[in-house]
UniProtKB/TrEMBL annotation:
It holds the Pfam family Tryp_alpha_amyl. Keywords: Disulfide bond, Signal. InterPro entries: Bifun_inhib/LTP/seed_sf, Bifunc_inhib/LTP/seed_store, Plant_nsLTP. Residues 32-116 form the Bifunctional inhibitor/plant lipid transfer protein/seed storage helical domain. The keyword Secreted does not apply. Belongs to the plant LTP family. Residues 1-27 form the signal peptide. GO terms for molecular function: lipid binding. It comes from Quillaja saponaria (Soap bark tree). The keyword Signal applies. This is Non-specific lipid-transfer protein. It comes from the Eukaryota. One of its GO terms (biological process) is lipid transport.
Length: 120
């Protein structure tokens, strides 16, 4: 049990470091890797519910601030939609509630059927 806690703590520290590094997204085009790093801390809430971590909310706020173009929104939407579809047990209602919970509304809703190409 202690090894699990240590592994989880190490994973959290690595994610936090990645988040800090990714929080300075200055390019005009967001990559799926950047989006994934920012939103990975949100997966446990999206699957299990409970409390949303501050690191998750910071990732959402950073991502929402990084959208510079419609293409950024479309790319992020596609990345989130496609990645979420690979996560067993994901609850899309929880995913779509995160923007409101974190006081940083998302410009789109994510479902397997979301047509990201229509975002402006």
């Amino acid at each position: 049990m202690a090894k699990f806690a240590e592994s989880r703590m190490a994973f959290t520290v690595v994610l936090a470091c990645m988040l800090v590094a990714a929080s300075h997204v200055d390019s005009a085009t967001l990559t799926c890797a950047q989006v994934t790093v920012l939103l990975t801390p949100c997966i446990s809430y999206a699957v299990y519910g409970g409390t949303v971590s501050p690191v998750c909310c910071q990732g959402i706020k950073t991502l929402n601030a990084a959208y510079k173009t419609a293409e950024d929104r479309r790319s992020a939407c596609t990345c989130i939609r496609d990645t979420a579809a690979t996560i067993p047990g994901i609850n899309y209602e929880r995913v779509n509630a995160l923007g409101g919970i974190c006081n940083s509304p998302c410009p789109f809703k994510v479902y397997p059927s979301t047509n990201c190409s229509k975002l402006n």
